[in-house]
Design goal:
186 residues; alpha/beta; 3-stranded antiparallel beta sheet; 3-stranded parallel beta sheet; 8 strands; globular
């Protein structure tokens, strides 16, 4: 989720987005056919069987479309028919995915249906695979995207670039490292 996007700068909209997406249903759809009984991890560093694991997602990690609707109402996004709007602007976000990756397409289509149920329009923008990061994710030309990080046996040392708060470099450009959400706290 690009926290600097026009609509997604509002933390309440980002939180509502998280609560409107049923991660467990997506995991079942994508991993169930492989014979895996998936459950959401709710921790960005540790696996559930590792020392130090704790659920860091809290209520935001729980699928709760009713709460998502309430949060969007409080943020001023009113439901007009099937789509929310604010100041005449529809609540639309774009998910950039790589061409030819069936799981990205399937995941995004599931998200599209879930978000529609709370009045958010999700547009899917399929781009050449080789361009996904260089032209879209790294420069911040996306609202949301889907991809996976490959884990390492040393989760703490490999995580700083993912979660460190972006800062401006000497040129005044935002140095996000690998924090593609572009948000963080001191």
């Amino acid at each position: 989720v690009n926290g600097t996007g026009a609509v997604l700068q509002d933390v309440k909209v980002r939180q509502a987005l998280a609560m409107a997406i049923d991660r467990a249903a997506i995991a079942r759809a994508l991993l169930g056919p492989l014979g895996i009984d998936p459950t959401p991890l709710d921790n960005h560093i540790f696996m559930a069987n590792q020392a130090g694991y704790q659920d860091n997602a809290g209520d935001l990690g729980k699928y709760n479309p009713a709460r998502a609707r309430q949060m969007l109402d409080k943020a001023g996004w009113t439901l007009n028919g099937n789509v929310r709007s604010k100041g005449g602007r529809p609540l639309e976000i774009t998910c950039v995915i790589p061409a030819g990756v069936a799981t990205s397409k399937q995941e995004t289509e599931l998200m599209q249906n879930m978000l529609a149920q709370v009045g958010i329009t999700l547009k899917i923008d399929t781009v050449p695979t080789g361009d996904l990061f260089s032209k879209y994710v790294t420069p911040g030309q996306f609202d949301v995207t889907v991809f996976s990080w490959i884990g390492t046996p040393y989760p703490i040392s490999a995580s700083k670039s993912l979660y460190a708060k972006p800062v401006r470099n000497a040129k005044g450009e935002l140095d996000v490292r690998q924090n593609y959400a572009r948000v963080g706290s001191d």
